[in-house]
Amino acid sequence: MIGFPKETPVPDIHSLAATPLCHLLGCRQPLILAGMGGVARAELAAAVSGFGGFGFLGMVREPLALIEREVAQVRRLTDQPFGVNLIPAGTARALLRSQVDLCIALGVSAVELFWDIDAWVIERLRSAGITVVHQVGSARDALHAQAAGAHALIAQGVEAGGHVWGRQPLLPLLDEVLGCVGIPVAAAGGLADGRDVGRVLAQGAQAAVLGTALMATTESFAHEVHKQRLVSGKAADTLLTEDFHVNWPPHAAVRVLPNAVTRGERGDPFTSAPQVIGEEEGRPIYLFSTDSPLRSMTGELETMALYAGKGIDRISAIVPAAERLRQIAEAAAAHLRLVGNAVQPLASPVCYAAEVQQGERQPVVAALQDLLLRERALTQLVFESLREAQGTALHPCLASLLHEQAKACGVLVRALRALDARPDAVPSGLCEQGRSMPDVQERLQWLTGVRREMAQQWQGLAGQLDGSCALACAEVSRLYQAALAPVEMGGD
Ligand SMILES: Cc1cc2nc3c(=O)[nH]c(=O)nc-3n(C[C@H](O)[C@H](O)[C@H](O)COP(=O)(O)O)c2cc1C
Q1: Which residue, of 81, 203, 210, 474, is most buried by count of CB atoms within 10 Å of its CB?
Q2: What is the chain's pLDDT, residue by residue, as a tens digit (492 residues)?
Q3: Cα(259)–Cα(272) distance, rounded to whole angstroms?
Q4: Centre of ligand 1 from the C-alpha of residue 92, in Å
Q5: Strand partners, 185
Q6: Is 87 in the pocket of ligand 1 (CB under 6 A)?
Q7: How many angstroms separate the CA atoms of 55 and 40, rounded?
Q8: Which ligand 1 atom sits nearest the alpha carbon of residue 210?
Q9: How many folded domains does the chain comprise?
Q10: Cα–Cα distances in angstroms (integers) from residue 211 to residues 58, 92, 175, 312, in the given order
Q11: Measuring from atom 15 of ligand 1, which residue has the nearest CA?
């Protein structure tokens, strides 16, 4: 058995404090194994959960017998909780339904989903008492997953290895998602050492999700050839490509290390005849498929998808997962101690004006909290209106409004963090006037008017803050003042 008895606190003083997301998942440390298809099998998931983190088995498209076997194997190796990762959009419907039913029958405690948001799957899992975690790549998807009933989210930055859904770098994305939703959010993409993890935790993420860093471990099911490429590879060499597409919905980008396929040496991925380049227990592996080289495969391993995230520069050896996690947890805890467990702006200078002394801090925090509540409520209303306006001429206008709203919420969350404050929970009942308007165009005009009025509040904040936050607030204020109602824009 890997791990410690259920009621024993983590003995290591260097461990990271549990977050509400840890309580939801039943783990002790805010470190999550990404549900990597093929790679995250029982041995690795058990090692991560046994350490006190949370392991997700990567079970995309896997047959029921394999899922059953892997779940049983984790349970033999550890008594700690773990979950299963599924991808509805990448799985045939009949198989997906039976995978979901199997997770329920097996009493899996948490399921992580990715790619398109499938409300049916979320509802089915939720109603069976399973904790649903959804990985997203934009604030809009975060709102969508929350509305569909996800209990928690993973914000995936473009730095991530494997399939990459959004195009935003992790840090701004995380601010926006934290700004828009009221459920716990974890961070993924390019996180490979303690400093990376400490930073996202300080930024408000409730856990760090590690893919590539845990693929480069003894227990991962990746083939040795792939692991060695991770050790020798460079982040600058990784690229996003749609070349590995067989088995997946079209236009899906993956981050990989370069090989003959990405250099164009194996022909056109979209017009070439199917070609078998390997096999796994009798199953053919096709050129341009999304399969990455696994322990169980033979063939042209270097020609398969060599998934890698941008954190690989910080991976220099293949080590046992517990050792990698211990090093990461210690260094992350040290980073958090160094920054006083408080929040530090990451890529930006200090945000609050030097003259905001302790006594003056409270009113600024209150003003930020107040504005954030209003902006979140507006964002929610824009999101609901966007869904109603699907297929109409108002849709693009609402989509760009939602984008602006998410950015505004992100600015406020960052400013609050700089003042060492966390966002308040969102009360219901805000924006009722707008919500009561049945006509979307009328609602959009109301929203634009409200935003114009709020421009003053943003301008006032800009005067109380400093550095990048002041600039960002002034920018939002300008944007709001300049906002034109859809009628003025020529919308109908
Ligand atoms: C080898 C590999 C396979 C992956 N497979 C899946 C998958 O099956 N399901 C999923 O939700 N995400 C998958 N991902 C993406 C991860 O969930 C996560 O976003 C990513 O690993 C985080 O970035 P990092 O690799 O830089 O840590 C995969 C990533 C890698 C590296």
Answers
A1: 210
A2: 554 444 444 445 568 999 999 999 999 999 999 999 999 999 999 999 999 999 999 999 999 999 999 999 999 999 999 999 999 999 999 999 999 999 999 999 999 999 999 999 999 999 999 999 999 999 999 999 999 999 999 999 999 999 999 999 999 999 999 999 999 999 999 999 999 999 999 999 999 999 999 999 999 999 999 999 999 999 999 999 999 999 898 899 999 999 999 999 999 999 999 999 999 999 999 999 999 999 999 999 999 999 999 999 999 999 999 999 999 999 999 999 988 764 433 333 345 454 455 567 889 999 999 999 999 999 999 999 999 999 999 999 999 999 999 999 999 999 999 898 888 776 667 788 888 899 999 999 999 999 999 999 999 999 999 888 999 999 999 988 887 545 454 443
A3: 17
A4: 20
A5: 153
A6: yes
A7: 8
A8: 27
A9: 3
A10: 11, 25, 21, 10
A11: 162
47 CA from centroid of ligand 1 (Å) = 17
Please give the residue range of the domain that contains residue 127. Answer: 20-223+314-338
Instruction: Look up the pTM and report it.
Output: 0.93
Cβ of residue 217 lying under 6 Å from some atom of ligand 1: no
Residue 388, judged by CB atoms within 10 A of its CB (0-12, 13-18, 19+), counts as middle
Same domain, 409 and 278: no
Q: What is the 473 CA–ligand 1 centroid distance (Å)?
A: 34
Instruction: Confirm or reject: Cβ of 166 under 6 Å from ligand 1.
Output: no
- Is 330 found in the same domain as 302? no
44 and 193 belong to one structural domain = yes
As a whole number of angstroms, the distance between CA 387 and CA 410 comes to 22
Please check whether residues 149 and 182 belong to one and the same domain.
yes
- Which amino acid type is present at position 277? I
Q: Is the CB of 137 under 6 A from ligand 1?
A: no
